[in-house]
Design a protein that fits this description.
Blueprint: H1 4-19, E1 22-27, H2 33-42, E2 47-52, H3 54-63, H4 68-71, E3 78-83, H5 87-100, E4 105-111, E5 114-116, H6 118-126, H7 130-173
Antiparallel strand pairs: 1-3, 1-4, 2-3, 4-5
């Protein structure tokens, strides 16, 4: 029979896995407590970084119906960044911190139910933030509206010029 404290920890981890848009597994061996605090700050408001026991993490991930690939990542000293907002922002925080602090290793993760490799997480971190992408899309849509308005405005002018040219041609022929 499982101890109540371990059962509660598994239930809490399962809830974290199910309630987050993504979870990135890392190996934190060699990081000091101060560096872990700095890492937590670099992840932003939408992510929570937790050190996890591998056995409890595997059980919770299995109960949360995560991909088998994710279960295999629970080896060595493991910590999970649970993301409840912009996944790109958290991936950038992890990538940048890993560049500055070599002991942090991104092992992989799961985002929106899809298992991801470390390379895919790094590629995700290279994307611009959600707000920037939405602003760019709004700019493109606004530009297209301006082009459409200019086209619609030019049609009556062209039609008037065409009618005038046709009128002049008819009067020259007569």
């Amino acid at each position: 029979m499982a101890r109540p404290d371990k059962a509660a920890a598994v239930a809490e981890l399962k809830e974290e896995f199910q309630g987050s848009q993504g979870a990135v597994l890392t190996e934190y061996r060699g990081l000091s407590v101060a560096q872990l605090g700095e890492l937590r700050n670099s992840l932003g408001q939408n992510a929570r970084f937790r050190v996890v026991k591998n056995t409890l993490g595997k059980i919770a991930a299995k109960e949360a119906d995560l991909d088998e690939k994710v279960l295999d990542l629970f080896e060595g000293p493991s910590a999970v960044a649970f993301v409840r907002g912009d996944v790109v922002e958290a991936a950038k925080g992890l990538r940048d911190f890993a560049k500055a602090n070599s002991p942090l290793v991104i092992k992989g993760g799961v985002i929106d139910g899809k298992a991801m490799t470390p390379d895919e997480i790094i590629k995700l971190a290279d994307l611009e933030s959600r707000e920037v992408l939405l602003a760019k899309m709004a700019g493109v849509l606004k530009a297209k509206q301006g082009q459409a308005a200019a086209t619609f405005q030019a049609l009556p002018t062209k039609l008037a010029r065409l009618a005038q040219a046709l009128h002049e041609k008819k009067s020259d022929e007569a």
